[in-house]
Amino acid sequence: MKVIGYVRVSTSTQDLERQRVKITECCEIRNYELIDIYSDFAISGATFNREGFNKLMNVTKDDTDMIIVSELSRLSRKEEILDTLVGPLSDPL
Description:
With 93 residues, this protein is α/β, with parallel strands linked by helices. It has a single domain (2-86), classed as 3-Layer(aba) Sandwich (Rossmann fold), CATH 3.40.50.1390. Helices cover 35% and strands 23% of the residues. It has helices at 17-30, 51-57, 72-75, 79-86, and strands at 2-9, 33-41, 66-69. It has a three-stranded parallel beta sheet, with helices on both faces. Helix 1 (17-30) links the parallel strand 1 and strand 2. The two termini are 16 Å apart. The model is unreliable at 84-93 (pLDDT under 50).
């Protein structure tokens, strides 16, 4: 299974590496092929004007079978997005 990961931190004092490691380890355990990890650094999850996020939104089923984030809050802080995602993405890492 081909997988793309997504990581985001909202401040320059935070580190993306913890999220990258978590996604990488999940893929190794489950035998997924991690083809890329898109990232946004020091950008709020309350906005959609994020380069990595916009790249992620353009991914198609031809590009990957699944998208993995370490926590749903990394994808967005907006409640309407999180409410939509919780059901189908409820399998924790």
